[in-house]
Write a structure and sequence with these properties.
This protein is an alpha/beta fold. It has two domains: 130 residues, no CATH class; 225 residues, 3-Layer(aba) Sandwich (Rossmann fold). The protein contains 18 helices and twelve strands. The longest helix has 28 residues. It is elongated, with a radius of gyration of 33 Å. The chain starts with a helix and ends with a helix.
Amino acid sequence: MDQATAADLHLDDIVAALCAGADRAWLRPQYLTPLTDADAVAYRLEVFRDLASPGLREAFSRFAAGIGAVQGQLTHAARLINRHERNRWLAEAGMTYCTSVADLVAAFAIATISSRALGGVREALQTHVASAGHTSLVAETTSVLAGLAAVAYRLDIDENTLTVARDDGADDYGAEILATFARFRQAGAAPLPVDVFRTSDMNVVEVGILERVVRLHPAVFADLDAFPGHHRDPIDPGVAAFANELAFYLAYLEMMDPLVAAGLAFSHPVLEVGPAGMRADGLFDLALACKRGNAAGAVVTNDVAVQPGERRIAVTGANQGGKTTLARALGLLHHLASIGVPVPARAASLQLADSVYTLFERLDDGARTGGRLEADLERARAITDAISPSSLVILNEAFSATTVADALALNRAVLAQIAARGALCVVVTFLAELAAPDAGTVSLVGGVEPGDGAGRTYRFERRPPDGMARAQTLVERHQLDYASVAKRLAP
């Protein structure tokens, strides 16, 4: 999807939220690039169906967090100067990785898997954990960390002198002091703040102590020093690839959670290849819902139905009545369906779109040498050159920088080009002539409150455009007809 369309649909805001944090920035192309193969879309949706199981999703979330922790430990180790400290962090990363993989294998063992993708991952993971490399990693990591855990030494502090000696079983005075004063401990008392100077590396005193501990336990630290040569990067490339792909699904599900809790429904779309009809029940604008946050439950939903031969949806109605929001929802519906994620509708069936393009009204760009009309014409030409019968084009008050007559003529010319290429088109317009229903055009009209003429319902009905009906209602309501105005102005 191009940058202009992503901005018009507010998809860029959605993707920014999905990719929040540097660790997810690489996901952006996956959310913006449509899949033109229906089977590839189905492949992804199968995974979402499996992840509907809370137990499996929680297991995958823990696994993803574990792999993230491994990567953090490896990054931290790379910054350390002291060899022994660095190698300890590498061993800890190895243990975190082994534990995460073992937990995932256990989750797979009890889960019901129906997707091709996760079925393949389960088989590959079983092969991986049985491999010589992984079993060696588990054994060596366990052995090295167990050896370090068994290291004990005595530290004698005498004014400016520190003495490191073997643990000879002498009493631990620190433990004795704590036991003696335990009876004076106040229940619920907050601990006193301690000013601790933290660095990414050990200070000179800590290094000195460690070096002397190494001399006391040479065999343990020899095993530790040998660990990086065998397992410098414990993460298997296949497992890393799975963790990365998993982030695509988990991020989207995390975004859905509060919206579903607010009462909005998502569904897995039924996709058709080639020109087809469209039906969306309970459709809503995902960008608006995300922006509303806790108030997302108040977002208005609409039902839209288009027959196979109808290739133009004309959206008319009162200003600020939700026309652009509906057009944006239709654009997001087609794009999200094309990347294989649940769509913001209670149920949906539609054509698999190879691309979505928008031509929205824009303010003048001071950086351009030409004006708005020239920019609109250039954009329209680029769109009509690129589209196919599987594309969706959204025109939103296009060519509003010119006269009504010229805007009507230009819209008709662009719509003729779109129709000639067989693409589906949504046109938001104040020009009733473009919304006249015919065999290929669906007219959706924004509703107003009965008897009011000013209140918007933000719901759209399939019926002929109102034309001047609403304007006449406002004229009568505010007595703006000629006779009433003339009477008020009469001396």
